[in-house]
Amino acid sequence: MARDGAVYACQSCGALQTRWSGQCPACGAWNSLVEEQGSRPPGALKLTKPTRKVHLAFEGLDETTPAPPRIATGVDEWDRVCGGGVVPGSAILVGGDPGVGKSTLLLQVAASAARSGARCAYISGEEAVEQVRARAQRMGLADATVKLAAETSLRAILDGLKAEPFDLVVIDSIQTMWSDAHEAGPGSVTQVRAAAQELVRLAKKRGMAVVLVGHVTKEGAIAGPRVVEHMVDAVFSFEGERGYPFRILRGAKNRFGATDEIGVFEMGDRGLAEVKNPSALFLNTSGQRAAGAAVFAGIEGSRPVLVEIQALVAPSAYGTPRRAVVGWDSGRLAMVLAVLEARCGLSFGDRDVYLNVAGGLRISEPAADLAAAAALASSAFDQALPQDCVVFGEISLSGDVRSVSRMDGRLKEAAKLGFRRALGPTDAEAPAGLRLTGAHRLADAVQRISDGGWD
Ligand code: TYD
Ligand code: MG
Asked: Using an 8 Å Cβ cutoff, are 442 and 343 in contact?
């Protein structure tokens, strides 16, 4: 298998190997090694002697560092995820499925920043300038002074960016860029890494912020090596379920801000509209809440978000019952089902279980456990929860309901949206106008749902 000089790059982690194998020895990914033309074999790097003496200067922890300046782009949902605006000289990677709206979002961000006085460029390697311009005009951005270019040659882009000062540059996308210093094809690990490295280096040197757009593989990782994620200061993912207009910008890494912040947008025919108050967005407000539905009082970043969790428990037609979940972790569903079986006497062994988070939102908070369990129990007993009830709480393997963070914020938001009742951990304190049904154990909550006795 090994040929002289052949180099294999892992498409997942970017590690280089001199021989092919089915599994990457560096990250353990299967079938990820692809031969790359023009890469330098590992170990071929020669260290050059330093030409001057370098002194290492230490500093104290107590010295003050001024907060980094920020470019407020005016797209508040974007700025919040950044941690209060884009930091000059920083590099941001934005990943997402094809068609989710990455180009639309970044064109809007660039246009809005340009309107606030920043010098912005949008370089597309995927579309012609006419296409980008036509889209901008349709979105009502024609007056913004964003400089457009369609280019894939890294050398041309670097030269262009060196010739003119910019505050914010969007590269759409990093996978289309290629450097003539490497023989590997565009989109290969070597090319993506080289392009990202050069662009990040230039950004740091010039104090210009650079946003790299990255495609996402079927497995959900940003295609190309993970080394790109290490090179940049922030990694955001832009998510949305097909068929829903809502799009969520989520921070996965951020050197200049918190990563639990989300930005919510709605895709319309004039681009993305910001959703400033998303708390009621994912609620089904039309009609009665049926059996199998529970409203989860969640927190996304700094904001409370109420969202309906829907469950369907149905007799299984086949030997192996189905478990399908959208918007939540399937491992978490398996755990909640196991606790419901072991601690509450419910049986799901011969039943199919479907769980869906309404509106295309993805929930990762453990606080959603009790809401999911309540939806499952409600469907299993065919007993609807009260219309005006929100649910939250973490479930432990022993069947206890544990308290969660920010209970006050969750309950206040629920009260504000007209909910009058909450099912949650016992130590929560309900604000005026809201009655809390505290459950020590999941079995207590399940008992109440099966009896329908809420008063
Ligand atoms: P795009 O930004 O090209 O996605 P990406 O860069 O992530 O591949 O968005 C493409 C989708 O967005 C396309 O299916 C059409 C839709 N869209 C709208 O619905 N309204 C609009 O105003 C725009 C510009 C796009
Ligand atoms: Mg695009």
From this structure: yes
